[in-house]
Amino acid sequence: MNIFNILSELEKVDTDVHERLEHVSRRSMFNTIGKKVSAFAIPALLATSLQKAYAATPAAIDVLNYALTLEYLEDEFYKAGNAASGLIPAAEKPIFTQIGKHETQHVAFLLAALGSKAVAKPKFDFTAKGAFANVFTSYQTFAIVSHALEDTGVRAYKGQAGNLMAAEDKPLLQYALQIHSVEARHASVVRRLLNTKGFVAGTKGWITLNQGSPAAVYAGEENLRQGGVDLTGLAGKSKEAISEAFDEPLTKEQVLAIATPFIAG
Q1: Which of the residues 161, 167, 191, 250 has an alpha carbon 20 to 30 A from that of 85?
Q2: 64 Cβ partners below 8 Å, 6+ apart?
Q3: How far apart are the C-alpha atoms of 79 and 121, rounded to whole Å?
Q4: Burial letters 83-109, b for 16+ CB under 10 A, else e
Q5: InterPro entries, per this entry (predicted)?
Q6: pLDDT tens-digit profile of 80-111?
Q7: Domains of the chain by start residue, with CATH
Q8: Which letter, b or e, does each residue of 224-262 get, where b requires 16 or more Cβ atoms within 10 Å of its Cβ?
Q9: 36: buried, middle or exposed (CB in 10 Å: 19+, 13-18, 0-12)?
C-alpha cells in the first residue's frame, strides 16, 4: 500500500485533507508508523484516521458493513482451512497463507473505518448447510469453495461501487476498489490452481460465459452487451472470448443469496 500516493490522491478531491486528518502532517504520521506499529497494522491505522476525518453517509456505512460481512466470511474460511491438519499440500500452502493474511487485513481496515458502526461477526457454516460437507477434509472441495467465494467477492465489490460514488465518500470508494483488485488477484490464482490440479478442467484465470459452480456465483457472466452495444461477433471473436473480456457485477440481493447458506447465525 503506497500511503504517500493515497494522501496525494486525497489532496486532489479535498485540499483540506491534512487538516481533516487531525492536523497530522505526512512526516509525523510516518514517524508514528515507523516507530509504533508494524506494517501489518498500517491499513487499520490509516483507516482509523480516515474514519475520523470523513463522516461516511448512511449509504456508505451500509455498503461497508456489507463488505465487512463478506470479509469476515473469507477471513474465517482461510483461518480454518490453513489450520486444518493435512488439508492444503505444502506446495500450495504459501498461496492460501498469503490470501488469508490479506483477508485479515481487509477485516481490520473495514473495522477501523466503521468504528462503532461495524456489524458483529456472524457465525459461519462453511459446509453451506451440507452442500460442502468435506470442505476442511478434502483439498479439492476447499479449493472449489475458495474460488466461489473469491469470484463472489470480486463481483460484489463491483456491484456496490456506484453506491460509494457520492463526493463525500470518495476516500471510501478508493479503498473499496483497492480491496476489489486484490480479491480479483485471489480469484485468478485460485482459478488457475483448480486447472493445474485437475479439480475443474479448463478453468482459466478469468470467467468464461457463466461456467462455474455454484451456478448462482456466475449468473449473468454470459452477458455480451456492454455499454448498450451487442458485441456478438466483434472482430471475429467467439462468445466465450468476448465474455472473458468483461466481468459483471452482482447485486446485494444476489450476493446475499449466495452467502446465506454459509451463515449459521
Answers
A1: 191
A2: 56, 110, 113, 114, 172, 176
A3: 14
A4: eeeebbeeebeebbeebbebbbbbbbb
A5: Ferritin-like_SF (IPR009078)
A6: 999 999 999 999 999 999 999 999 999 999 99
A7: 56-206+247-262 (1.20.1260.10)
A8: beeeeeebeeeeeeeeeebbbeebbbbeeebbeebbebb
A9: exposed
The residues with which 229 forms a beta bridge, in sequence order, are 226
The grid cell for 180 is: 476489489
Beta bridge partners of 225: 230
What pLDDT, on a 0 to 100 scale, did the predictor assign at position 178? 85
Place of cell 460484489: 156
Q: Which of 206, 211, 93 is nearest to 143 (CA)?
A: 93
- Cα separation, 99 vs 225, in Å, equals 33
CA–CA distance from 192 to each of 95, 100, 137, 151, 196 (Å)? 12, 18, 21, 13, 6
| pLDDT range class, residue 29, cuts 50, 70, 90 | very low
Cell 453451506, residue?
A: 128
CA dihedral 46, 47, 52, 54 (to 10 degrees): 110
Collect all residues with Cβ–Cβ distance below 8 Å to 80 and sequence separation of at least 6. 126, 136
